[in-house]
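Marked as duplicate of an earlier ticket. Keeping the data here for the record.
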Amino acid sequence: MKITLNRPKVLNAINTDIILELSSALNEAEKDADVKVVVITGAGDRAFSAGADISRFLEIKTPADAKEFLRESLEKVILCIEKLGKPVIAAVNGLALGGGCELAMACDIVIASEKALFGQPEINVGVLPGWGGMSRLAKIVGIHKAKELALTGDMISAAEAERLGLVNKVVPPEKLEEAVMEMANKLKSKSPLAIKLIKEAINRGFAPDMELALERDIDLFAVMAVSEDAKEGVKAFLEKRKPEFKGR
């Protein structure tokens, strides 16, 4: 099954519709015995996903709003991918930023185009990563590199992401689909039960407390989401100006 994030005009930004469509497709994949592998990619040639639809943050009024917004999407997409009894491949065809980077991290295999860029730029608009861009990122790339990426909001190349263990394989843009299909076909030839159990064992061994860590991330996201800095950062982004953060 191939799932395409289809909002190319806004770099496949993740909104409520995309979350619901992803959730529906993943649930369908779990139930359909004919589906052996799931591939997630972005429409167009510019982005896998540039992250959340930033304007949505302005609708958050209370910490409870923030927690509900994030927890629901986390369960419907990120944790669903992790618990899915089938392998999920991220075919990263361009920008993978914020929620887009976190979506790729949640997948089992990440294959990226040479032109792909990865990053957690949330800090630039005064908010925090909420889908694993703190806890899961640190588990994958190490504490110091995770802090660097999350604190600076800097982007890294696909080659650097591969070096850090964030990406399995980097290929020329024109070879991405071929590389993804090659991996998908290889996985299809294996025992579905063995794949399910291996995925479960590795996820549990890698981060047995990941759900708890993500819950703590949600708590911190909620504090930041209703801050003056968050409102200023989002407004500045939408108004295409430099934010003036006050630290409150």
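See parent ticket for discussion. The chain has one domain: 2-172+191-238.
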